[in-house]
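To fix ideas, we reproduce below one chain and its tokenised fold.
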Amino acid sequence: MKKVKIGILSFEHMHAFSYAIGLLKLPNVELVGIWDDQTFRGTEMASKLKTKYYSDYQEFLKEEMDGVIICTSNVLHKKMAVAAAKAGKHILVEKPFATNEEDARAMIEAAKENNVQIMTAFPMRFDTSILEAKAAVDRGEIGDIISITGINHGKIPSGWFISKELAGGGAVMDHTVHLADLMRWFTGSEYTTVYCESGELIHNKGIDDCGIVTVEFENGVFGTIDCSWAHHKNYPIWPDIYMRIVGTKGVLEVDAFKQTQKLVDASTNEIHEIGWGSSADDGLVKEFVRVVQTGDEPKVTGIDGTRAMEVAIAAYRSTESHQVEPIVSSI
């Protein structure tokens, strides 16, 4: 059987390492190389993963590869995705898909024009607890959905994540999109309006670190997303994904990060929570490899990424206007 050859464009995003490990676990998959604009980071990762480092992304994309995973800063997603599409590579893009509608449109069009698939990195679509909850909803166990409350908290990141120019925004951009995608998937409906209050309330880093996003859907469902970087530095869990889904026949609560063990470090007076069980990142990577092998449309498309991104962008408009803002998709 022919080997599936995958490359990674940048380790600027922390998730790149997990995706790389996921690739290495799979039989018949080869991590052919890494491009990174920082030589030290790129060579370090290439050494750890026993692959080759490239300093020029255009030369990298000339190599024999079936697909690439893009883990640059958010603002570079368009540049890298368009280049990869023109090179004939299938594409997995870290979330958020892009930082504006124009870039998202260019990425989707480039993939279509070059007959490659483009996928958004929403690993929670492959989390066991999320999948079980979706199946229960689809079976009608809680009736018709009335509302969904969602929470995605985390610690404030550093570096480019807290630069609006490089990330497209702060906590609202970073932590709205996962739940925006899941809510749209669970309801099977499109967004109509967004209301948001957000701001810099905790960390004094010059970027939004708190937000409450209220959304409405075409089918009448409404939801809220708490997307704040609210965890202090010693908090044991890095992220959390929680949903409370209220239906006409019952209520379903989903907590995607409950499979953990507590580790108390007496030397630093810190408590760590170590995940165990199934890996959502592994599920995401397996799906991308399937897409590369078959050319089939991914379970999480570029359009899915765009729809979630549109919620975050409308949330920023609402924060400025203090009004309910409509979502009118142009893609």
Remarks:
- The longest helix spans residues 302-321.
- Residues 125-278+310-326 form a domain with the Dihydrodipicolinate Reductase; domain 2 fold (CATH 3.30.360.10).
- The chain has two domains: 4-124+281-301, 125-278+310-326.
- The chain is about 35% helix and 25% strand.
